[in-house]
Design a protein that fits this description.
It is a single chain. By secondary structure, this protein is of the alpha/beta class. The protein has a domain at 4-89 and 161-240: Rossmann fold. The protein has helices spanning 42-49, 72-77, 95-99, 117-130, 146-157, 176-191, 203-209, 232-240; strands spanning 4-13, 16-26, 31-35, 57-62, 65-66, 80-83, 106-107, 114-115, 164-168, 195-199, 212-217, 220-226. It has a 6-stranded mixed β-sheet with strand order 6-9-10-3-11-12, with helices on both faces. A 4-stranded antiparallel β-sheet has the order 2-1-4-5, with helices on one face. The longest helix has 16 residues, at 176-191. The radius of gyration is 19 Å and the shape is globular. The relative contact order is 0.18. Keywords: ATP-binding, Nucleotide-binding, Sugar transport, Transport.
Amino acid sequence: MAVLELSNISKHFGAIQAVNDVSLSIEPGEVVGLMGDNGAGKSTLVKMIAGNFRPSEGTMKMDGAELILHKPVEARRHGIEIVHQDLALCNNLTAAANVFLGRELRRGFGPFAVLDYATMYRRAGELFKELKSETRPRDLVKKMSGGQRQAVAIARTRLSNAKIVLMDEPTAAISVRQVAEVLSLIHRLRDQGIAVVLISHRMPDVFSVADRVIVLRRGRKVADKKIASSSPEEVTGLITGAIEQV
């Protein structure tokens, strides 16, 4: 059964049609590359899945049950997590503090409750080990590489036993070595049965880690193919309009 299924999803803002009649499904443990030029509708589609926008038309299902989201916290409760392009990390805090930001653990009761730093450090360390990352719980984010920052953001998604992780341009502004580290993190999520939607402009990254590629152009889906049966040249043609649809 598909972990996520979209049927005839559309979204318009007044006269602007951002997403037009898009249907797709994503299986557990599948990595799907979502590609398209700027303004193709990728971000709008992902924001509907993440609970930021309500679809104007169409239905969403998760594990076979209809999914109606009014805000991002509801998406998180259903196991949908998003790693934003800017990562939304606090540079002056430790890795562990960022992992638990907004979901801090406490011990004690009522006015006597205090933050349970020991448990948060231990759990963050377990998550980094699970992701095979060199990031350490007590490291300050401002001193981290781009790859380590991505590890912190991805570890945060693991707190709630995510079923699907939406990743927005995770390799856009990092070095080649750090790109390899991030792609390895995506492999780790897939190995744990978590579906990943990878929004990216970087063709080599999508073709090295994704099982399938979906291409949007002007709000419409123009391709949904296994990576093995496509090519960077074909996807480029679909993005630019040189190839109409496959």
